[in-house]
Glycosyltransferase family 2 protein
Amino acid sequence: MKTITLLVPVYNEESVLPQLFKRLDEFTKNTPNYQFEFLFINDGSTDKSFSIIAEQSKKDSRISYINLSRNFGKEIAMIAGIDHVKSDALVIIDADLQDPPELIQEMISYWEDGYDDVYARRNNRQRRNLASKKKTSQWYYRILQKSTNIPIQVDTGDFRLLDRRCIEALQKFRESQRNTKAIFSWIGYKKKEIFYNRDPRLAGQTKWNYRKLLNLAIDGITSFTTAPLRMATIFGFIISFIAFVWIIYLLVRPLFGVSTGAGYSSLMAVILFLGGVQLLSLGIIGEYVGRIFIETKNRPLYLIEEYHAGNIKKTRR
Ligand code: UDP
Ligand code: MG
């Protein structure tokens, strides 16, 4: 019997966990031909999430859990889980039931057809302040896609099924500032897209706000592509070229009898503009230098307080 791990990152989800257990249990009952493991990653929850999971694991031997030493964020919680997957396949699913577990059956059937990465794409995005967030994210992905040759999947989250070989590939990515979505694209393999309607969050609060989203966006770009550095170079080049032509023009102009007038305001404009461009370029370089600084420290990605393995068998491969 093939084994499948459902990886659930959990951060303050006490209000949805009981429902989640029920839905997952129902789902596995309807999917009898596989052995399932539920791998919960408690990402430093400050509510009762962890004790609820630990309690449930006494009743249900399919449950494994990892208790991280503090809150590391979803990206790190996911790699902590991925490092501990022993099964033939892995499904990453949010705790808040925004990703319907029933869809996993469709994922499995494509997996059996030979696909390595079956990811769910949202038909609609029922976000709370929809319009503006949606537009921003559309723009963001368009820009990100322009900066790279690797195809990026839009309207796709982390809800996906990954074959063993994708899991092993993902385990090799040890960067600490992770953009998991981009890594999924990077690894390649045979991908299959399926569509679904994303449900609203069952209960509790989303952990995202504009500040966090902005940070994620900047991290996403700087960890994925060096295109902004290239842009700074090109922009600098264009401006110097224009300035050069301008200087020639200024030098030649008196020869034809046109007097060079006082130009305080135009001078200020140019200086301020160039100053801005320089600061921006410095900032971009700084972003990357900072990234190098963090990565060279080579810290562990996460620390585990407790790991409990359910009774899933290690895969044969
Ligand atoms: N999550 C996590 N660590 C965090 C923030 C979130 O493990 O620091 C988990 C959270 O419990 C949920 C999933 O990541 O299972 C998605 O979080 P959320 O629902 O807040 O994001 P959204 O669906 O609004 O994008
Ligand atoms: Mg959610």
Notes: The chain has a mean pLDDT of 85. Residues 94, 96, 98, 201, 206 surround magnesium ion (ligand 2) (CB under 6 Å).
